[in-house]
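Hello,

Our lab assistant flagged a job as stuck in the queue for most of the afternoon. It eventually completed. Since we weren't sure the result was trustworthy after the delay, we are filing this so someone can double-check. Below is the sequence as submitted and the structure that was eventually returned. Let us know if re-running is recommended.
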Amino acid sequence: MKYNLDLTHDTYKFLEKLSPKHFKQIFKAILQLLEEPRPNDSISMKGYSGLFRKDIGEYRIIYSIEKETIKIPLIGKRNGDEVYEQLKRLQS
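-- returned structure --
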């Protein structure tokens, strides 16, 4: 089954600012999620119902699977709790 992709405005802006190398890595991972939304290396996020994370190098993709759509509300650096703080702000 093929999935549609839904990026938030913030995610789109984040991708625009990446170096070509990092953009390619992350975009390749996003395309793979569209083919297989629950790969072996994705993890269901504790405390966030319906959200998953996938780590790509120094970045983390936060996403959900809704019907035939992969929604990506956030991509951020993996270091520390930065991604989780951004996610809490999004959820508020």
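-- support follow-up --
The delay was a queue issue, not a problem with the job. The result is valid. Residues 4-91 form a domain with the YaeB-like fold fold (CATH 3.30.2310.20). The chain has a mean pLDDT of 90.
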